[in-house]
Write a structure and sequence with these properties.
The chain has 314 residues and is an alpha+beta fold. The protein contains 7 helices and 8 strands, in the order H-H-H-E-H-E-E-H-E-E-H-H-E-E-E. A hairpin with a 7-residue loop joins strand 4 and strand 5. The termini are far apart.
Length: 314
Amino acid sequence: MGPHDFPLLDTDTLAWVVVTALLVASAVWNIVLRRELRRRRQAEAESLQREQQIQTLAHARKRFIAYLGHEMRNLVSGIFGTLALTDAERRHLDPAQLNRALRNDAQALLDLVDASLDAAQIDAGRFAVRATVVDVAALLEGIALAAQPQFQGTGVPKVELGFARGSLWVIDGVRLAQIVRNLVSNAIKYADGADVRITADVSSDPMQSRLCVRVIDAGPGLTPAQCERAFDEFERVGDSAEISGRGLGLAISCQLAQAMGGKLSVRSEPGVGSVFAVALPITPVCGQHRSAWPTSACIQRPALRNPQFLNSTP
């Protein structure tokens, strides 16, 4: 059979072959087109994700710089306030206590430098809690003493403890001090000379003990709407035109408390005052297990010689 002896396809068969070829070509083209569209969409999504990551990093950097400046300003203000006391004011205070207040703030500055990267990692989701053995009573009394210059010579915040002095607990003392220092500083600024108290107690829950520190002031108080915004960044509630600050202290404290597995809350009533409370998980230290935990600088400071100076409850 020669090359020209093949039978010719009839019209219907030829049409079927052409249509089938077109359908196959169309299907192949659709597959190629869908793959190309998926590739382009994936590339666009990756590009958008990279852009969002860049924006997030830029925002985190700005927040971190503001955070660091806010914390350092608080500590440096305390140091300058102590140094600015007049001779007449110094005569009514124990020199050892003033030196201790300066040392506490200087140590807090060093702790802040050590913890600055951790603060940045809050935004990155890589925050690490550094639990150490802490004398919580000494820590709170040291914060109250360091706040004396900010209290304009009218005394210091009262410290009321629901547990024995000298009790040792496992908690991140550096972050706890940052939170309480922010709450105390904020209360003193807005209380405008009214009383400020620090209370602390530990729950007896057998599953997980929790430390609750409350900073109570008799200031002008907050409305419900202001309470809802109290922990927002750069939010300054009330008549704050004459009050220094950038509206970061409570937002920072809230983030730190959450990173430590705790919570920061507020109760307030206009004309009565406010109660800011931080609740954090805490572990008591048994004598035989004390060496298993690193020791915080908070318990290495000598005890206050005159607890009555703090107007605290034994």
